[in-house]
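The data are quoted verbatim for reference:
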Amino acid sequence: MDKTIQQIPFLRLTAALIAGIILGDLFDFSLFNLAVSIFWVTVFLVWLNFYYSFKRLVLFGVGVHLLVAGIGIWTVENYNRKPVFYSHGKFSATVLEILQEKPNSFQSVLRIKAVFINDSVFKTDEKIMVYFAKSEESQILQPGQNIIFNQSPQFIKNRNNPFEFDYAAYLSRKKIYRQVYLPQDRWMQFGLKPSFSFTTLAERTRIQLLDIYRHQNMGEKEFNVLSALTLGYKRGLDPDTKKVFASAGAMHVLAVSGLHVGIVFIVLSFLFGFLKKNKSGRILYVILIVSALWCFAFVTGLSPSVRRAASMFTFVVLGQSLKRPPNIYNSLAVSAFLLLLVNPNNLFEAGFQLSYSAVFGIVFLQPKLQKFFTFRYSFFRYLWTLFTVSVAAQIATFPISVFYFNQFPVYFWLSNLVVIPAATFLIPLGMALLAFNWIPVVTSVLSFLIQLILAFVIQFLTFIEQIPFSVLEFNVFSLELVFIYGILLSMFLFIEFRSSRYFKGLLFFILVLSAVSFSIQTLMLYRNEIIVYNIPNQVVIHLISGKRNYIVSENELPETGYEIESVKNTMRNMRLKTPVFIRCDNFYSDPYISVKNGCVNFNGRIIVCRTGLNQIPEELTPEIAINPPLGNYEKENLPFHVILSTSGFRDQINLESDRVYFLNEKGAFRKKW
């Protein structure tokens, strides 16, 4: 194993950098002290190198790893420094992204460059989320154009419901902390020449390429899938299309990644392979391939997965030109090292983690799986290769996938037998359509073929999604995720080295995972909890006893939307049974709960909802009252244990007390016993 690690020198350096980034994210460090420490460690290493001896080899290695870890800490601390937040004034900003249409607005991202306060100008550099009111002026805004607005941005806050996606933290990783809604009368465009940056240039280029696709008169779904597949533009995808691809296990095709870059690399290698016959041709070949790969990465938005793949294939091309085939694991480590130096927050992106896990699984596991069977005919060998690639990638990524998305697509292997070959044709055809759109005959033929393939793919995936049990929904806790990866790592090491200690490690992690999961399940059997969700203009109460649970709501919950998703998040993460849905004003009774006219008795705990009540009965002293009628009570001496108020009740309850809990300010209310 030591020899294997020596063949991957960047693996240890990347691990040290990752350790530093994690430390820097968990704790606050002084940039000045870090810079001083990095300087003295560097001086120490230079001195050691000058007086180098075998006895000091370990000390030198420790020093190098400490230096790299220190660089990781400094990188994440420096990258995540927050800008100065100006709360008022006139803001000068540049549009960064293509506007995405929402039901009542256009969404984009702005970069604030200056703030005008009275007669003073303050330079700044802050990205904010923006929502433009729909109008003719906002509809034609493009990346790079400058605007002035006088609306104060607000900090982005979560609703703080249990287990909800931490949207504020997600945007903060992208250095976006505030948002603003701009009615038409609060902003204006200025400046004739758009501001230049590589980001806005890429977005404007992508707009022009999207217009070429849009003029082909293809269906809306086909257009959006092709845009995502070839240009990395996923903002137009509707929820139904995303659901079909996700349930069929083909969502990775819509996120431009190593698969897409690999297809581009294969096509380019086939087209320009003849240049490798002589030295000058090999130089031209390298320049053409590397330039084309990074151009593709540029027009697809330079996502972490694309940068990783483009970096890795760049090393492959350079190694081939020097007749020194690079170690694929070292190439992965180098690309990760460089990407994390540029943006350390990549480490916490699900796409970044899934991308590297998938490539590792394919490189390490797929060749071993392929040896299980051999086929005489090339067609069956090709199908077997596709199957093993899908299985290898899924084995390596399923823990992260389940951890983030709480679902596992059962028929991923069947979907990929169709989707991957289709992508192999669609990406070159899409690029050819962009390149030869000025030739009508060629455009018509290419457009027809693309629409034919896309229609078949969408129909096939819809069929897969409708097969019973196509998706298994469950969740994995953080501690369980650690032990699952311990199992996978032990299994991979045992397959590679056939050592009994790795097999013992495999058994150990399986045993510990079983014990942890059993303990979690046992503790959940004795759980009792009341949750009142923070949902505007709606009362939703979740009553939990063990795995049994009830949803008591003011109105019937829709089949889709934020309300039901909040409930499902709790169900998945607390591993509950299917709940019983009850309206506050209906009658319902069983051994655990009774509901009548807005009064709920759950395991001896009384809860009162406003619905259906003119006043709370005098003989009833509830433990919790939600939006209660207060006519008969003095606000200074309320008999309720806790008063909860949804949005709109702040004006009616002017009482600051521990008994008053405002959902829209503090988030969901939770009480356990």
Notes: The chain is about 50% helix and 15% strand. The chain has a mean pLDDT of 85. The two ends are 51 Å apart (CA to CA).
